[in-house]
Amino acid sequence: MVNEHLEYVFVALGLLVFLLYHMWLLFTILGEPRRTIIGLNAESRHQWVYAMMSDPFKNGVLAVQTIRNNIMASTLLATTAITLSSLIGIVTSNPWSSDDTSSILDNTRTIKRISITICFLVAFLCNIQSIRCYCHVSFLITAPTLRDKEAYMEYIGKVMNRASYSWSLGLRAFYLSFPLFLWIYGPIPMFACSCLTSFGLYFLDTTARITRDLHTNSFTKESNDVESAVETDYHLLAGNDLAQNAALDNVSIQIA
């Protein structure tokens, strides 16, 4: 009886601590993004998109390679998540590991396995969405047309940040799986792990004042350089040869 009360109290408190921390993190990202690593990284990726698209012919290979590295990281996490969820399903379906499941809601072991499996499935889906967005960006960022349009660059930057946000959500699902794994050994280890995980994530997610100042100065300098580097002429697609030749003739006349 006492053990059941501990399950209800400490498990609920552990999940509440984890939830309250991430609610605070979400409001901080929306209100003061530069106080968090996620907000600073979002601005860095935005500036990176502008820098890459200032000269897509020169920076195209670098941009695609960078995006490919992010795709590989998301693929690794997605593969790990679906593998672990499959292993949990195999273990729970074996006859030697089955127990009395006459009432699933009252079976604590079943609830623990389902919770961990849901975490890994959420991580898998988030990383799949991250891969989808990164693949979309890899096509858009090397397009030679309309590279001088602010709205076009803004859209690519938003898709890039959307991919990173999906990757971060998948990583948070992995973080949540640690307390749920320790829940197997009891509610007190689960509660302690939730508190320690939230405490450690606070130092990983927040930024110091010197870091914010350095990024602010860097963003201001980079934005001025990128704006001066963006050209004003259009780069048409290869479907209209006459228009393309006429544009090249106009450019050559102006240079002469």
Structure description:
The protein is an all-alpha fold and 256 residues long. The chain has one domain (2-255). 80% of the residues lie in helices and 0% in strands. It contains 8 helices and no strands. The relative contact order is 0.14.
Q: How much beta, percentage-wise?
A: under 5%
Net shape: flat
What's the main sheet like? Answer: none
H and E order: HHHHHHHH
Instruction: Look at the helices and sheets and give the structural class.
Output: mainly alpha
Please report the total strand number as a whole number. Answer: 0
Kindly provide the radius of gyration, computed on alpha-carbon positions and rounded to a whole number of angstroms: 25 Å
Whole-number tally of structural domains: 1
Overall pLDDT: 79
Quaternary class: single chain
* Low-pLDDT runs: 229-256
Protein name: DUF599 domain-containing protein
Transmembrane segments: 6-27, 75-94, 114-143, 188-204
Keywords: Membrane, Transmembrane, Transmembrane helix
Organism: Vicia faba (Broad bean)
Task: Give descriptors for this structure.
256 residues; mainly alpha; 8 helices; 80% helix; 0% strand; flat; disordered C terminus; transmembrane helix; DUF599 domain-containing protein; membrane; DUF599; transmembrane
